[in-house]
Amino acid sequence: MTPTARLCSCALLLVAGAASAQGLYRNVDANGRVTYTDRPPAANAQPAPVGGSGGSASSSAQLPFELRQIVQRYPVTLYTGDDCAPCTTGRQLLQTRGVPFDERTVKSNEDIAALERLSGRNGLPLLTIGSQQLKGFADTEWSQYLDAAGYPKSVQLPAGYRNPPPQPLVAQQPAAPAPARPAVQAAPPAAPVSDAPTPSNPAGIRF
Questions:
Q1: Under CATH, which architecture does the 3-15+53-168 domain have?
Q2: Fewest CB atoms within 10 A around its CB: which of 45, 52, 74, 103?
């Protein structure tokens, strides 16, 4: 079983116990952290911008104005792995609703370690909506959080719109070039041996 396959099996165990959110409200605390609860937000609460691309800049520029504003406030990122049926189902849900999203793949040991630092667990799929994390796939729960963030229930994407291609969670570093091997210098040719007599060998005898 591959590391990613183990991740998916962990996520499947969590689906049955996922609690359905009822009457969700968006709350913003004093530090600007956005969360969703069943309690209405304070009267002066405002949506806080949360870092995240929610698609490349060029892709977001193609979106209708209202949808683009939602993407900027609550960018959606889906974390997936190979041979992960819940990941495929979650991706299809986002595509059916026309939700612009980034996809990060978890394959290498470095990816798994980064996922654990991000979510505190190594289960897939993981969906983030702004700063909200949804661990494991549950159709009703994902739909309710997307509704609370303001995403439309049906596709409103312009014709020809495409989400950015999936990228690894940890960017792959290019392999360092192998150090150049020093050039081997050829030994100078041996001096030819002469049979001519010399002061130290007057008879010119070779041994």
A1: 3-Layer(aba) Sandwich (3.40)
A2: 45
